[in-house]
Amino acid sequence: MTTLRMPSVPSYERNAKRLFAATAIGATGFLGVYHLERVLYLLRLGHGPEYIGIFVAAGAWVYSGMGVPSGALGTRFGARRTMLLGVVIAVSGLLTLTLSETVPASLQHVWPIVSHMLTVVGWSMLNVNIVPALMSATTAENRHSAYALLSALRGTGAFLGSLVGGWLPGLMAPLVGQGLDAPGPYRASLWVGAAILLLSLLPVLTLRIEQPAPSQDRAAPTGREGRFPYALVLPFALYIGLSHGGWSVSNAFLNAYMDQDLRLSPAAIGQLTSLGQFIAIAVPLAMPRLMRLRSPGWVLVVATLGVAASFLPIALVPHWTAASLGRVGIIAFTAIRLPAIQVFMMELVDEQWRSLAYGVGSMAQSLGSGLMCMAGGFIILALGYSSIFYIGAGICGLSAVWLLFVLRQQTARAQ
Known about the structure:
The protein is built from 14 helices and no strands. It has helices spanning 14-44, 49-77, 79-97, 110-136, 143-176, 184-198, 201-205, 230-260, 266-282, 287-293, 296-316, 320-348, 354-383, 385-414.
């Protein structure tokens, strides 16, 4: 008689579960509600795509600059303290954005950008330290599945936040006494996003992460063991910067395109965004199996090419179905790419360099994103939205080619 056996579910220690919860809650508030409402709010304040590009680019550059300091702060003061402070700073910045209508006219343009930069500082302190903290809270047996689950939970939070964020302006409009063409409903929706993000404090407060004490009997580092492995990290960081720069086109401009060119309602934009995020919940769970069948580098190349291909229907067909299909593809392939990057980079270096290495990777992705977003708004003004989606596809394709070269160089070096 044949018995059916259910696949085993990896077990995780207490700290890992708290990190999962913090990721899911933080993603709901920041990647979901905040990412959706901020663009719609800025458009209702009278800003155009060039301003949105500068706004997103400023946040990306701050995230870039905070990558290494966030990792260093986690190493110096402990991941838990750094993440707690990060949540407080992120919520403060988000709430500061909601005051944009009340500041003097001379500050109307700079205030949203500064508030966004403050929000990103806090998000960096939280997000950068979750990845190495999870590395220490998992084992070799459950690590790949843990990072896949982390990405799935990030997708779950973004899905719920996008879905709720699409409904919020319509719910808030009667409460604030303004229609959906005015900024009031979006301002109130941002307050909800701040409240959700603040809830991520709860699982972080219950973390019990021991900060490794410096060894007293270790001799001064000499040779390769004592130096940060720049030759390994920097070529991979260039791939991260290029691929994230291409991806950032969708993050910065797709909602504005659907609002301005396709004339979709906030609820429709939220629902289409959440569709892609829903698919992204399940996709990363296939990553551990892919990692066993193929190398992390192979997974990264295929996922990056998938992101590039997903831009094409958006650029080619000016219709909501093409935009939603492309967004689903971008989110789904990115949901595979991000945990693969995390595992690849964490396994690339020794434990003592993991926070710093991930900080370098975060800096690279934000530099790429910032440069692309800064130029993107002006490209849209000159050539239209479709041009920037073609460029996003091209940059992602270029990054995949560079990664293939890097992987071949590493293979040759190992032989």
